[in-house]
Amino acid sequence: MKPVFVPDNRGKASRVTAQTVRHIYEKAKSVKEHGNRIRLKQFTEDLKKDGLILSSKTINEILIANDLASAQTRNRRPKFYQSLCQKIPNGLLSIDGSEFAVRLGDNKFTFNVELGVDVASFSHTSFSVADTETGMEVIKVLESHIKDWGTPVGVLCDHGSANLCDNVSIYLKKHDIELVPVGPANPKGNGTDEGAFSQIKKALGAICLNMSSPKAIAKSFLEALISVYIYMRNRLSLRNKKITTPVEQMAMPVTDNNRNAERQRIMEHKKNKAGTEEEQFKLDRLHWVIQHHGLKVDSLALKRAEKTIKAYGLDAINESEAAFLKAIRTKTDRKKLPYFFGILKNIQQRLDEDAKRQYCRQRYNYDLMLKMEQWSNKEDTEPTVDGIIKMLKNAVTIKSRRIKEVCIRRVQEWTHELMKSYRYIGSLKNKFSDALGKLQDLSLEQKKEAWELIEQFLKPESRDQSVTLCP
User: Fold this and answer.
1) Which CATH number fits domain 92-250: 3.40.50.300, 3.30.360.10, 3.30.420.10, 3.30.1300.10?
2) What dihedral do alpha carbons 417, 420, 426, 429 form, nearest 10°?
3) d(CA 42, CA 292)
4) Taking the model in full, what pTM does it have?
5) What are the pLDDT digits (tens) for 256-300?
């Protein structure tokens, strides 16, 4: 084995100056003017050929600061969703359809397989094969399930026309079965059936027969293969060998109280589908939104909302409340908790990107860097009281953090240099006081801040200390 040599580039990076930023800006602008995209990795390599050794992260921040790239931040906050997880077998039956293809020689036949899977046990209870997905196929799956396992409490399905047709609705009302349509972007939605279809197709693979036969033979072959798979699947544990198999779990007795509790939970979920010291304040805002707008929330959704909202900022929550109020004025069907969290997620993402863009501009914006170098190179002659006061005025009035730090550092250097020519510091302090009092365009708070800096720099022990700003 040969060791991998990793070059150590620490300390070799180029210094970021205004000229460096200008060179990167002009080069990137030239790329865009020719109608090409800036590919960060290749752009970094091109700059190395020009003698600029910078990391791709630094170059990306320079491009963002000068409006040549968009600020993008990762979403590290938890998502809000309403859980549909069930605790008892035959409480919620998931029904969905998927297309299967059977190839007989050069002929290809496609069928729709409608499959019923118990959400709690993952037991594949029934299926039906037809040309297309229709309401009659959904009813066939339900009848087959009821025949073998009894009536479920609820049925979980997507918003397809076959699942929500009149025949299916009448059949469900007749057998007192709750219909639970699945909403978008819900990880606890109809993923049960989708996972089952994925395993079926993985186990069966492509069905190709090198023979000439009618379509009925292809259909019967597909039915036989799925029957074999379901028979074997239901005799294997889903997650742990210690847990009973799906067939054994489906055969376990369930009390009427458990079934009534599951029915009540499903009904509460359906109602919620129609119609979130600092963490405590966020929880109070969430409870206020729910109570003020009369949002109907079950205990599980409320628990998830309380956990999720703690990760968002107060500014985003306040803006979301105003946007949510404006949205429900036009359409009352938007008055529900998932819609509020959707607004909150988008606003928080925008605020994060704005913060990153502002950070990059403060560090690498060309105009600010040029102004900072001008302040840094200004008045290279002997330091004077008036020159220090002018620089101190810039330090307390300019908003840019980097320029403010440079000005304060230069004031510190000039003050210590001026102290060498004074035997009594009190007289120098009086001159600073008189010069600062003559400034008419500074507020009282700004003068107070400037005087605190002067007093700090006039102390002998401040010579060996560095000055940094508090965030």
Assistant:
1) 3.30.420.10
2) -10
3) 54
4) 0.42
5) 888 888 888 877 777 665 434 788 888 888 999 998 888 888 888
